[in-house]
Design goal:
This protein is α+β, with helices and mostly antiparallel strands. Helix content is 26%, strand content 41%. It is globular and about 45 Å long.
Length: 152
Amino acid sequence: MEDQTQQEQASPAVRKRVQDSFDRQGLMAHLGARIAHIGPGRVRIVLPARPEVTQQHGYVHAGATSAIADSAGGYAALTLFDEDSDVLTVEYKINLLAPAAGDYLEAIGTVLKSGRTLTVCELEVYGVWKGGERKFVANGQQTLIRMNKPTQ
């Protein structure tokens, strides 16, 4: 049975703010990634496996794997911030546990501790096949900084 926090939805205003920000990310669009779930302190991003995101052995490249993990954690943190705040990654570490294979990758960012200035997230990436098989391919931890939303 799936944990209730995996199904809980953020408010419509938070979902819109996160999706609007995600839609401004050129790299996520270039990779073909999309947000699959936005919950309070938890975001899932899906990346279809296709030749343009692979490395020389046909697995999804570590750069693409870590990019979606970084964005999932950043947006998980943003779900807990007020509308006048934004987020930037300070640092992250990712362990590549297995070759990133599957029909798509799913990155899950989960807030472990949301502070006034710094937020810490857990990062998980799974290779997923259409038949439902899932393989844990990467995990990591991330520190983010809350900042004032830039003026345009």
